């Protein structure tokens, strides 16, 4: 490739991670302040709560940055060798197959990933940390154990290998996913009618809040990442009134929910006495 060949795809490829970080930081900051100004709770409480969640950015970032390079290498290899499910589909070179079918396929894989994190006990111990937040807000988006960050990006590498997703598709997917995940964790709720319409296709804040309810079977519902259609298809779709939702996990002692070091150690057997 000529060094003077500059395309949008190349720019995104070279700065994929940086763009994601900037996008993440920008959208989270805007919505965080929107939550502050729309809430009656003291902003100092929110700052304390968000501060703990934002600490997880520092543990996630080095893992995310280094492993994203691996995902890019897999994508380039698959693209060069015409490898993956997307290349097996009819009209595989059409933009609809490349981007639209690819988007749906990757979203289905993310649904499988989320179900796997809940159903496999050894993986649930890492994902559980995300669910221990008792005050769901936009900062909960980044509350992810570094072990889960590692597992999540490794799974993404597997999904890219299986699908043959191009860098362009990954950029599109990650951008939409970033907005969707952040908005889904805000404390805002959509009016019922709007939620019903958008919820036919998308995971709305109302739907993701049900996923953060502290009791089964609600914790094991609405696994969707961007799209809600997989939950509808596989019978894991649930709705719940805001007044009935209690954030957190009833199998976790809430007194540890704001202790960063405890949360980091919680998946490991020696220090873990209250989760399972
Ligand atoms: Zn979950
Ligand atoms: Zn969540």
UniProtKB/TrEMBL annotation:
Fatty acid hydroxylase domain residues: 100-236
GO cellular component assignments: endomembrane system; membrane
Signal peptide extent: none
Record field: transmembrane: 21-40, 52-75, 95-113, 153-172
InterPro entries reported for this sequence: Fatty_acid_hydroxylase, Sterol_desaturase/TMEM195
Keywords of the record: Membrane, Oxidoreductase, Transmembrane, Transmembrane helix
GO biological processes: lipid biosynthetic process; membrane lipid metabolic process
Chief localisation class: membrane
One GO molecular-function entry: glyceryl-ether monooxygenase activity
Topology versus the membrane: Multi-pass membrane protein
Protein name, as recorded: Fatty acid hydroxylase family protein
Lineage: Bacteria, Pseudomonadati, Bacteroidota, Sphingobacteriia, Sphingobacteriales
């Amino acid at each position: 490739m000529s060094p003077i060949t500059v395309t949008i795809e190349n720019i995104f490829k070279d700065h994929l991670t940086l763009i994601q970080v900037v996008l993440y930081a920008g959208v989270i900051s805007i919505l965080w302040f929107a939550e502050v100004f729309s809430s009656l709770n003291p902003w100092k409480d929110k700052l304390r709560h968000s501060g703990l969640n934002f600490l997880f950015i520092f543990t996630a970032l080095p893992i995310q940055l280094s492993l994203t390079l691996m995902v890019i290498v897999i994508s380039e290899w698959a693209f060069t060798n015409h490898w993956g499910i997307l290349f097996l589909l009819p009209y595989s070179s059409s933009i609809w197959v490349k981007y639209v079918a690819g988007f749906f396929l990757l979203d289905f894989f993310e649904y499988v990933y989320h179900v796997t994190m809940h159903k496999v006990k050894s993986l649930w111990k890492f994902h559980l940390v995300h669910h221990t937040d008792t005050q769901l807000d936009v900062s909960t988006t980044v509350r992810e154990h570094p072990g889960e960050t590692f597992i999540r990006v490794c799974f993404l590498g597997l999904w890219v290998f299986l699908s043959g997703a191009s860098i362009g598709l990954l950029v599109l997917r990650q951008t939409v996913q970033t907005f969707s995940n952040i908005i889904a964790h805000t404390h805002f709720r959509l009016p019922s009618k709007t939620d019903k319409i958008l919820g036919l296709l998308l995971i709305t804040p109302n739907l993701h809040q049900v996923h953060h309810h502290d009791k089964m079977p609600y914790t094991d519902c609405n696994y969707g990442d961007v799209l809600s259609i997989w939950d509808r298809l596989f019978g894991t779709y649930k709705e719940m009134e805001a007044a009935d939702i209690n954030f957190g996990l009833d199998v976790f002692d809430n007194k540890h929910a704001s202790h960063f070091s405890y949360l980091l150690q919680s998946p490991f057997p020696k220090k873990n006495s209250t989760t399972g």
